[in-house]
Specification:
28% of the residues lie in helices and 33% in strands. It has 3 helices and 6 strands, in the order αββββαββα. It has a 6-stranded antiparallel beta sheet with strand order 1-2-3-4-6-5.
Amino acid sequence: MSEFVRSLHEVFERFGRIEARRMFGGHGIYHEGRMFALVARDTLYLKADPQSVAHFDRLRLPAFEYTRSGKTMQTSYREAPAEVFDDRDEAALWARRAWEAALRSGTAPKKRSKAP
């Protein structure tokens, strides 16, 4: 796990407990079993939806994109504003927005499998 990913525990300390899980060469960032953020190439992206995307658009924060079968695919995750790394209250606000978008998505929380 990169130092950047480890630092997110401190960044989001006012939001609540988070967990980072490896996925597709990056990390999913979870709170209470729901993924609300992802990290790719040491860049933080937060979950957005129709109710929250205006906050990201206002700051011109791009969506996370990847290429599959030669096509660029855009996700519902947007780059986090730089302020989240300097201001814990701002980080909590943006994390809450992303968490609420994750809740509205209707995706069930992921349970961690326990080793026997």
